[in-house]
Task: inverse folding
C-alpha cells in the first residue's frame, strides 16, 4: 500500500477533513499533534483569517498543517499566493480544479491534495499532477456529490495514477479497514471530528449531533439548484426547502434560505433555521473527546480488525 504517512510526514494515515467556519488553527493543530493531518478550512473567510489561523496552527504544532481552499472561493487567488509566500505544508483543494496554481505550488515543493466526488474529476486531477486524491462519497457531511464511498473509491483507484484517500461515512476501525480494502491508502474524516473537544461548534449544534440518529440526516438542494446539495440534520429549514421544491420555487428564491445557513447552525447555534451539516455516520458518534483521543481510538479499533497489516 502507498505510504501516505511518509508523503505527508504524519504518523497515521488519517486526515481531518476541512469543515468550513469551524476547523481553524487550534483544531487543526490538535489533530496533527494527535498523529493525523489537521486541516484549516478557508470557506468564505477573509485572507486575514486564513493567515492568522495557519500561523496559529504552526505555533501550536511542529508537525504539518493543511489548508483547504474551495477553488470557487472569491478570494482563491489571494489565498493561493499566501500558500506560496508562507510555504504552506499541504493544500487541500475542493469544489473545482486548482490547475491555475498547481505549477507554482509544485515548484515550491508544496503537497497538493484534491477532493473529488466523481471518477472523471479524479482522472483530470491525476493528469494535472496533484499528489493525492481524496475521493469523497455522498455519505459525507457538508456539500455532497452523488456517488457512494463504496462505488466511488474502487473506480477512482482504478482510474488514476496517484494515491487515493477515502472519505465519506468513515468513523471507526471497520470503516478504515473497508477503505483500505477498496484500494485507498488513507482516510479523510469530517463528521467524527465534529465531536472533538477542540472543534469550536456552538453548544446547541453539539447537543443536536449528540442526540442525532442517522435517520435524521437529510439532503437539501438539488444538483441544478442554488449552491448544490448538502447533507444536514432534518429541521425547520429542511421542511421549508421541501415546501419550496413542491411549489416549484425559482433558483434565486432559495438564496435567503441557504445564504450563510451553515455558520448560522454551527457557529451561531440556530440549528432549526440554519444548515446543521453532518454526515450519515453521525448515528455512530456519541461522545465528545479530545481530537488526539479520537485518533487513538480509530487506530486501536482498526488494529483490532483481524488479518490486516497494523498501523502504528
Ligand atoms: C460541517 C461540515 C463542513 C464541511 N466543510 C468543508 C469545507 O469547507 N471544505 C471541504 O473541502 N470539505 C468540507 N466538508 C467535507 C469534509 O472535509 C470531509 O471530507 C467529510 O466530512 C468526510 O465525510 P464524513 O463527514 O462522513 O466523515 C465538510 C463536512 C462537514 C461535516
Result:
Amino acid at each position: 500500500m502507498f505510504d501516505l504517512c511518509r508523503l505527508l510526514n504524519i504518523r497515521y494515515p488519517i486526515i481531518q477533513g476541512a469543515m468550513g467556519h469551524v476547523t481553524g488553527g487550534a483544531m487543526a493543530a490538535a489533530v496533527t499533534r494527535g498523529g493525523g493531518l489537521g486541516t484549516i478550512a478557508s470557506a468564505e473567510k477573509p485572507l486575514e483569517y486564513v493567515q492568522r489561523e495557519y500561523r496559529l496552527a504552526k505555533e501550536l504544532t511542529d508537525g504539518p498543517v493543511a489548508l483547504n481552499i474551495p477553488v470557487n472561493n472569491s478570494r482563491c487567488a489571494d489565498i493561493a499566493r499566501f500558500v506560496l509566500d508562507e510555504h504552506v505544508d499541504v493544500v487541500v483543494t475542493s469544489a473545482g480544479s486548482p490547475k491555475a496554481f498547481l505549477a507554482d505550488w509544485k515548484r515550491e515543493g508544496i503537497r497538493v491534495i484534491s477532493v473529488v466526488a466523481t471518477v472523471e474529476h479524479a482522472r483530470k486531477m491525476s493528469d494535472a499532477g496533484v499528489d493525492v486524491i481524496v475521493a469523497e462519497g455522498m455519505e459525507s457531511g457538508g456539500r455532497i456529490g452523488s456517488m457512494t464511498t463504496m462505488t466511488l473509491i474502487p473506480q477512482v483507484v482504478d482510474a488514476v495514477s496517484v494515491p487515493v484517500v477515502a472519505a465519506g461515512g468513515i468513523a471507526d476501525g471497520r470503516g478504515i479497514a473497508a477503505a483500505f480494502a477498496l484500494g485507498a491508502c488513507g482516510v479523510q474524516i469530517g463528521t467524527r471530528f465534529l465531536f472533538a473537544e477542540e472543534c469550536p461548534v456552538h453548544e446547541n449544534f453539539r447537543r443536536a449531533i449528540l442526540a442525532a440518529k442517522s435517520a435524521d440526516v437529510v439532503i437539501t438542494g438539488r444538483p441544478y439548484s442554488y449552491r448544490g446539495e448538502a447533507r444536514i440534520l432534518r429541521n425547520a429549514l429542511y421542511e421549508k426547502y421541501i415546501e419550496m421544491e413542491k411549489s416549484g420555487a425559482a433558483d434565486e428564491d432559495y438564496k435567503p434560505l441557504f445564504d450563510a445557513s451553515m455558520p448560522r447552525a454551527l457557529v451561531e447555534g440556530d440549528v432549526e433555521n440554519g444548515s446543521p451539516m453532518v454526515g450519515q455516520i453521525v448515528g455512530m458518534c456519541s461522545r465528545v473527546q479530545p481530537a488526539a483521543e479520537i485518533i487513538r481510538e480509530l487506530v486501536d479499533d482498526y488494529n483490532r480488525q483481524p488479518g490486516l497489516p497494523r498501523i502504528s
The chain has 13 helices and eleven strands. The CA atoms of residues 29 and 96 lie 26 Å apart.
